[in-house]
Amino acid sequence: MARERYELRLERLDGGRLPNRVEALTEFFDLDDAHDTETTLAKHFLPLACVAEGEDPGGDREEMPWLARYVLRIYQPGSTRLVTSYRGWRV
């Protein structure tokens, strides 16, 4: 299948407000290709969560327990229709 355009939005799992503003990203990937999807989402999750927390993305993940609060939700561009979500933290 072809690569399609998706909007990536970092959100808190509890539905609360982000401590710092994080803009949604637009990315192109093939949702039917597990490797392409995982690679694309993984490269954005940590940097976006760090912006939200005001932290350095180069730090030690074991010192980032707050990563568990976040989820990267994938939407059709300009829509509120959720396509899938990604929780890329592993500590």
Task: Describe the structure concisely.
With 91 residues, the chain is of the alpha+beta class.
Kindly describe this structure.
By secondary structure, the chain is an alpha+beta fold. The protein has one helix at residues 34-53; strands at residues 4-12, 25-29, 70-75, 82-86. The chain has a 4-stranded antiparallel sheet, with helices on one face. Strand 3 (70-75) and strand 4 form a beta hairpin. The model has no long low-confidence stretch (mean pLDDT 90).
Widest sheet: strand ordering: 2-1-3-4
Radius of gyration over C-alpha positions, nearest whole angstrom: 13 Å
Number of strands: 4
Helix segment tally: 1
What key attributes describe this structure?
1 helix; alpha+beta; globular; 91 residues; 4-stranded antiparallel beta sheet
Topology:
Blueprint lengths: L3 E9 L12 E5 L4 H20 L16 E6 L6 E5 L5
Antiparallel strand pairs: 1-2, 1-3, 3-4
